[in-house]
Each structure stands twice: as C-alpha cells, then as structure tokens.
Design goal:
The chain is built from 7 helices and no strands. By secondary structure, it is mostly helical.
Length: 134
C-alpha cells in the first residue's frame, strides 16, 4: 500500500523541480525585461511593484500548473513553461504601449497602473492556461 502511494514520487520531484526552475527563469526574464527594478522597489516597501509582480507571477503560475497537469513528459512542461514566460513578457510590453510611463508610475508607487498591469497579466495567464491543450 505504501509503495503504491510513493510510486509517483520521482515524477512529482522531476516536475516540481522543472516548475521551480521555470519560475526562477520567469522571475529573471520578466524583471530584466521591465525598465524598473521590482525587487529593489519591493525592498523599499513599494506596494505598486509588489502588486504588479505578484499578480504577474500568478498569471505565470496558472498556465504553468496547466502545463504540469497536461504534460506527458517534462519536455512538454518545459516547452509550455517557456511559452508562458514569453506571453507574460509580451503582456508587459503591450500594457506599456498603452501606458508609456508604466515603469515610472510603478516606481513612483502608483497602484492604479500596477493593478492594471497585474490584472492584464492575470487575465492573460487564465487564457493561456485554458488554451494549453496537448
């Protein structure tokens, strides 16, 4: 009985490690693609930066979880995880086109701009997750 319970543990560990690596990749790629330093702003207690990054991270985690559920192999997970990273970066740039001073507004602590970016990221994550059919 116990053997049956832990039989999938190696696959879990592999998928979990891949998902954590993709999350790290996401945070690095996303923060490098923005023109403001999210982590420095968060260290300074900037709620706008924390909100926009937190919601975008959630917008990334949704399709990542969908990829985990639907992936047949860890390669599937990696491919669709990278797609989710790219979509979130694209959303940042699209919102930045609507609000050209987006990064400055977030750096200034303007919550409205940050929440709009976060909501767009979250919405894109939901649609991305639903679109992941294997």
């Amino acid at each position: 009985m116990l053997y049956t319970s832990v039989q999938g543990l190696p696959d879990f560990l592999l998928f979990f490690a891949a998902a954590m690596a993709l999350t790290g990749l996401y945070l690095v790629a996303y923060t490098l693609s923005t023109t403001h330093n999210e982590f420095e702003l968060i260290r300074q207690n900037n709620v706008a930066a924390a909100s926009s990054l937190g919601l975008s991270l959630t917008g990334f985690a949704l399709p990542l979880s969908s990829a985990i559920v639907n992936a047949k192999t860890v390669v599937d997970l990696l491919v669709y995880g990278v797609v989710a990273v790219l979509i979130q970066i694209l959303i940042y740039w699209l919102v930045r086109m609507l609000l050209p001073n987006l990064s400055q507004r977030i750096a200034n602590g303007e919550v409205a701009a940050a929440l709009f970016l976060g909501a767009a990221s979250l919405a894109a994550g939901v649609v991305t997750a639903a679109s992941m059919v294997f």
